[in-house]
Amino acid sequence: MNRVLPLEDHRGLAITGASGAALDALEDALALFQRWRTGAEAGVERAASIAPDFAMAHVLDAYLHLCSRDPARVRGAWPPYDRLLRLRTNEREQLHVAAIGAALGDNYEQAKRWLGVLLREHPRDVLALQVAHAFDYVTGDLERMGDRVDAVLPAWSAADRGYAAVLAMHAFSLVERADYGRALDVGLRVLDLDPYDARAHHAIAHVHEMTEQPALGARWLHDRAAFWSTGTVVATHCWWHLALFHLALGETREALALYDARVRSGGLRELGDLVDAAALLWRLELLGESDAGRWREVAAAWARHADDGFCSFNDIHATLALVGARDWPRAQALERTLHRRQALPTRHGETTRLVGLPACRGILAYGRGDFAGAVELLGSLPARVARIGGSHAQRDVLYLTLMQAIAQLRRPLPRAA
Predict the structure, then answer these.
(1) What is the DSSP string of 317-352?
(2) CA–CA separation, 136 vs 143, rounded Å?
(3) What is the DSSP letter of 195?
(4) Fewest C-beta atoms under 10 Å: which of 73, 137, 169, 172?
């Protein structure tokens, strides 16, 4: 008989409704989630099947859905949340349930506040830290993202299970704070502890991107591919980073080969792959390398998400795809939709008003050859652009478009005969 006993997890935190076997399954799933490796869902399912009343199994199930920019995936958090509302939970678990409910209500700021309360009381709750970190990233709350990790670090040591994951979050936070030397040191320390931590490889790729060391970055990713390219949730995105390094080296043929073999090879079904595809093709477009066939494929895939109304980060990348494909009817329809949504009293309404709509209009202007309009619209964004979330490297596509529009305006007019 699999008797349910009062237990603590591997960080000494009290849990309810678990058994020893269910806890082992959940800890394995959590480790995969922390290290950005695939398979966490199967571990959660196993934990919940062993102990159906195991609250933290349903908490992790909900978070696996919520840490996404795809609204269809986010909605998948409702069943575990409904289950949690009917379970006996302790005070810490109740804070998780409150954060999940707030996120499902599209109130990410309240979700982050609940997670902040939880972390102040339980700084070793690595799941709370990881989800708060993810929510800070999605909402562009870069300072808080770094402050959270700084606050809990004193409660951790190298002997603790999950310590490498905490350091990996620290490394990425340091990148986004432009503290690149420390970010590299911390990322390398993570890989000394766990060479298969995909998040640390990703953070180090960002260091090389932001410090403009494409040759070093390309060599790093090539040499470490066995650790990040198989069995991780970030494989396509790291191939995207490698393609960016090739672009920076002037190697457009290599970048396009990576696009075909790695970025689009999965069929462009995942929203993250769509983001990477649009961003890479747009960078090629800015360099004068356009391909109508590739653009049509990406635009058709984005058309399924163009009306999601979930976040401005998605809207901007959908606009890149539609403009790149010269699909003016859909691009203009998205602009009209965003014009209406900017008035909504929602998270998406606010970011649409502040960043999303002017950014999308700036991309449209650039695509039409209205470079002065693109400069006016995109030039107004830098102070607020972090609000769309993502990384500096991802948001850089707007800056690159602005710079290319300025370059187009500076080109001398041909003299009359």
Answers:
(1) HHHHHHHHTT-HHHHHHHHHHHHHHTTSSSHHHHHI
(2) 9
(3) T
(4) 73
- End residue of a domain, out of 107, 137, 167: 137
Dist. CA 304–CA 310, nearest whole Å: 13
Element at 14 (helix H, strand E)? strand 14-15
Is residue 212 in some structural domain?
Answer: no
Instruction: Name the CA dihedral angle for 317, 320, 323, 326, rounded to a multiple of 10 degrees.
Output: -90
- Select from 137, 161, 178 the last residue of a domain: 137
Question: Would the pTM count as exceeding 0.90?
Answer: yes
Distance CA 30, CA 20 (A): 15
Residue 202 lies in a domain: no
Question: Any idea what the Cα angle at residue 314 is, between residues 308 and 319, rounded to 5°?
Answer: 95
Q: Which two three-digit tokens encode residue 393?
A: 């490297």
Q: What is the pLDDT of residue 19?
A: 94
- What tens digit of pLDDT does each residue of 86-121 get? 999 999 999 999 999 999 999 999 999 999 999 999
Which pLDDT score, from 0 to 100, does residue 382 have?
74
For range 294-303, the mean pLDDT: 95
What is the model's pLDDT at position 383? 80
What is the domain count for the chain?
A: 2
Reference 397, options 318, 331, 337; nearest CA is 318
Element (H, E) at 7: strand 7-8
Q: Is residue 210 a contact partner of residue 180, using CB atoms and an 8 Å limit?
A: yes
Range of the domain at 395: 291-417
The DSSP output letter for 19 is -
In whole angstroms, give the CA distance from residue 154 to residue 24. 26
Residue 122: which CATH number? Answer: 1.25.40
Rounded Cα distance, 74 and 86, in Å: 21
pLDDT at residue 417 tops 50: no
Residue 226 is assigned to a structural domain of this protein: no
- Tell me if 121 is assigned to some domain: yes
* 143 — pLDDT class (breaks 50, 70, 90): confident
**What is the average pLDDT value for the chain, to the nearest integer?**
94
Q: Residue 314 and residue 297: Cα distance in Å, rounded?
A: 17
Task: Tell me the pLDDT tens digit for each residue of 397-406.
Answer: 999 999 999 9
